Amino acid sequence: MATETVERDSGHVRSVTVTTLASLAGIVAMLTSEYAIGVDPSSNVSLFVVLGAIAVQLPILKATGIDTDDFSTKDYLYIAFMTFSLWFVSWTLVLTASTV
C-alpha cells in the first residue's frame, strides 16, 4: 500500500516537473524572441529560438533527476507541443499588444 502511494506520487511529480519546465521554456523562448533578439515577426530566427528551447529541456530534466531514458515518442511530442504552444500564444499576445 505504501509503495503504491510513493510510485503514484513520483509519477505525479514527474508530470508536474515536465509540464512546468515545458511551459517556462515556452515563456523564456518568447522573451528571448521579443526582447533579447528583437526579431521581426516574419523572420525565421524565432523558430530557431523555440527549437533551441525544446532541445535544452532534456539535459535539464536529466539534471533534475527525471529519468528520460523511459520517455516515449508521446513524451517528446508533449514537451515540444507545450513549449511551442506557450511560445506561440505568449508571443502573439506580445506582438498584438505592441502594435496597439
TrEMBL record:
TM segment ranges: 12-33, 45-64, 76-97
Pfam families from the UniProt entry: EMC6_arch
Presence of keyword Membrane: yes
Keywords annotated in UniProt: Membrane, Transmembrane, Transmembrane helix
Superkingdom in the source lineage: Archaea
InterPro entries: EMC6-arch
Protein name, UniProt field: Uncharacterized protein
UniProt source species: Halapricum salinum
